[in-house]
Amino acid sequence: xxxxxxxxxxxxxxxATLLGGSALAQGGELxxxxxxVRGNRVDVTARVRTFIRDGILQLEVTRFNxxxxxxxxxxxxxxxxxxxxxxxxxxxxxxxxxxxTLELGRHxxxxxxxxxxxxHEEAYDRHEPxxxxxxxxxxxxxxxxxxxxxxxxxxxxxxxxxxxDNYSLGVDPSPGVHKWLRVEYVYRGEQRNITVDEKTxxxxx
Length: 205
Fold this sequence. Notes:
This protein is α+β, with helices and mostly antiparallel strands and 205 residues long. The protein has 6 helices and 13 strands.
């Protein structure tokens, strides 16, 4: 009985270690992301890259975050391919409604890091002054939810172009009630506020 408990405990530790290791890309480049079911997958690479912060990709795998539902009412999965600095390509799979966490920048190749820093400096010079979302909430009187992170993830090339609805914001805080989006942001060093009705478009700057 004692041996069985020991074996069972070691097996649990081994499985946990194996699963934990599969979530770490240990440095590399995200080269492709696909979302859907076998025979019906769409390319969501650009969308997934917006969730990378400081070399770490982290997002909940939902149709709201990925911006599309290629197979309604079916259990989908997100497939991510990462090319490591040694040239090896590894594939990671995440089922719908799971949490995806990949450490892409842990072991940066020096040449890749230099190229990325150069691109960052060029982009900073080109887009400065940049758009910054300070706070955003969505809902109706008496019931608003914070959607700051969602708006920040949708900024592309220094601009934000978004249809204000439950689907794009990933939440419906007041079903059946007309809602609006309130945004506090900074542009050209000036703090501003804007309110946009549901089913219209938010365009910044």
